[in-house]
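Sample A.
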Amino acid sequence: MPWPAWTYCCWRRPCWPQPAHAAWAARRGKAHMLELSMTCAAAAGIYLAFALLALSQEEHWAASVGTHPAAPSARLRHRWRYAAGTALALAGALCVAGHGIGFGLLLWVLMMGAGIMAVAFTLSWKPHWLRGIAQGAGKCTPR
């Protein structure tokens, strides 16, 4: 047997990754599913928060619900604003928990921009779609 070359110590082990075990792959898939679920929940919370902030303004209330139910009281509007702030903070916590502090904060800020745009498009295109959120908030009765 010939003597191995001096580079033998560099290429004894393969450089490519070894195939993953089935159990490890299953755990990694579950982690991706949890991450996706947390991101979707954060997006829904952000949309709900900005919809509540929009409904707490009288102009948007009249555009989405109409003038049949009176505009919400000032106390109820303040509660909606606090609930919106809580939903935004919870969405930020979900983003950070799912993606880490670096990408989670970036994702949260970008999702807030997307949520603002989505609520603005909803108010300009089909404002009556926000009537369901008003019903869930306890002010509007279904027609």
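Sample B, a different protein:
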Amino acid sequence: MRIEDDSRRLVAIDDQENALAQMVYELTEGNKIWVTHTFTHPTYQGKGLAGELFNAMVEKARKEGRKITSTCSYVSHKLAKNPEKYRDVTADS
């Protein structure tokens, strides 16, 4: 499996080129990444794909010097669960 970034979403793709999960985002003013939605195909739910997309998003934010803001419940929960770990990439509310 690999993760591709098409400048509006991160997509988990398998060896047969099937999209297994995606995290939709927009780049916004103030050097922020606004994550709006995470979706995992029902067949692949519970296999850690959303977590891998989240980790890739955090890596993207760190690499690009951006902050993450979210209306996606999954991402909001992950950021809030470990505030110290993600302080450098969490946007002020």
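Observation for Sample B: DSSP finds three helices and five strands in the chain.
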